[in-house]
Amino acid sequence: MERKIITTADGSKTIQLVDLDEQYHSLHGALQESEYVFIKQGLQHVIQDKHNQTNSISILEIGFGTGLNAMTTLAKTKNCQTPISYVGVEAYPISAEEVLELNYNNLFLDANINELYKDIHSCSWEKPVKITPYFTLEKQQKSFNEIADKNVYNLIYFDAFGPRIQPELWIESVFKTMFDSLKEDGVLVTYSAKGSVRRAMQSVGFLVEKLPGPPGKREMLRALRGS
Asked: Strand 207-212 relative to strand 219-224: parallel, antiparallel, unpaired?
């Protein structure tokens, strides 16, 4: 399948699957989508929520991909001394050549954060690696249906390819796995607002709210595992 690196509307890059007309991130802006969907509506919501006052935050990313969401998480928490445990699940890691061409090491104003991009991609898989004193990353190469964690995470970034391309990732059984892996009052955020996705989430027990979407999308979803 042909893959190429393209530049999105905010100047940040992403990977395009040419034959499927699908991208790893929004064409309207890869970075701004990451910052809005996963940081503003996900991470910041968890930090500010009184039910989630905790000494640490555990995050699961469904679709580690380019590492952009891990980078934005690092950038937004660089002055926060709350330990972050970040698990990124990816069945098909991107190549070293794609890492270089994406050039995310020049994406942020903070040079120290930019330097960590190579560490994120060069560190070992299948074991926790301390990227900074407060950010530990564990990359896991496996399919999403192999996730068996129970009551582990405060937050899930659900960033799989869209329902049009991989409908099997947006169904009840997958969201039941997500629900079970979250702690009480844990949160899942995703860029999709498709009706069938919302109903699948609700069917397994999530409390789901529609939120305004990032540029180029009218809505997105945030789901809560209630008490």
From this structure: antiparallel
